[in-house]
Each structure stands twice: as C-alpha cells, then as structure tokens.
C-alpha cells in the first residue's frame, strides 16, 4: 500500500508497456530509414523515428476507450522517461533536463497533430511535407520523405487492422520499412 502511495509500486501495464516499447524501438531503428532514406542517425533523428512510431500507436488508440487508451498513455510516459534518460546520457545536467524534455514534448505533440491530420485526410503529400519539415529541416529536397510517408501510411493501415486485445497483450506488428532509396 505504501509503495502505491509513493508511486513506487509497479504499474499494472508495465510489463506490456515494456514489450510494446521494445517493438517500437526496433521498428524505429530499421536500417532502411537511416541507410536508404537518409534519416539522420543522430540522437535527434532517432527521437524523430521513435516519436513517429509512438504516434502511430497513439493514433491507433485515439478513439478507443480504456484500457487501450490507458496503456498508450503509460507507453507515452515510458517514451518520455527514455527521452529523459537519453538526455542524461548525453551529459545534460538536472537543471537543463526539464526544459529540454518540455521542448521535446511540444515537438512530439506538434508532430502528432500534423501527421494525424495528413493521415486522416489520406494526404500523402501533406504527410511527406510534414515529415520533411520535421526530420530534415536542413534540406529543401529530402528524397526520403516520400518513401517514409509511404511507410507511415502502411504502418497506419496495419495498426488499424490489429485488434485491441492483441495490442493489450503487447502484440504489435509494424510493416518492414522498404522502398526506393532517397534520390531514386
């Protein structure tokens, strides 16, 4: 009882959240995104890909009630704990962590809004533009945006076909990242 009051007790969804998060990390680290589509293999590039995959599950659960929405909230919390941990590993001190995590959270939710609107409209061009604007703001002609947008739409469709019970058991299936190389 005391552990629950202090927030030290394990959360009921923790085991499933850990399973889902490992799968999200694996999907976000598919080599084709970095090697073929030129997503920067940097801390920020990896954040973008993790954000994208967390968003996809969050978007899938948006119209579901509890318990899936609660699970996705716990998963989002886990994502930001991982972001916090990663910032600390990069050497950012306690005083700078909160500010940076807040900034990254604003970035995440801004991206979620833009990606969600494009997906709901079935607008691959808008999705591609949003991905390019967020993932490769350093270039005006990122060729990886189109195949990444195709992947995101395929992942969205695959997640829509997955039943909630499977997700609640920690079973999630992202499609393999395939596609034409950047610049092709």
Automatic annotation (TrEMBL):
Domain Ubiquinol-cytochrome c chaperone, residue spans: 37-174
Pfam families attached to this UniProt entry: Ubiq_cyt_C_chap
Domain of life, source organism: Bacteria
InterPro entries per UniProt: Ubiq_cyt_c_chap, Ubiqinol_cyt_c_chaperone_CPB3, Ubq_cyt-c_CBP3-rel
Family of this protein: Belongs to the UPF0174 family. Belongs to the CBP3 family.
PANTHER family: UBIQUINOL-CYTOCHROME C REDUCTASE COMPLEX ASSEMBLY FACTOR 1 FAMILY MEMBER, UBIQUINOL-CYTOCHROME-C REDUCTASE COMPLEX ASSEMBLY FACTOR 1
Descriptive protein name: Ubiquinol-cytochrome C chaperone
Natural source organism: Nitratireductor arenosus
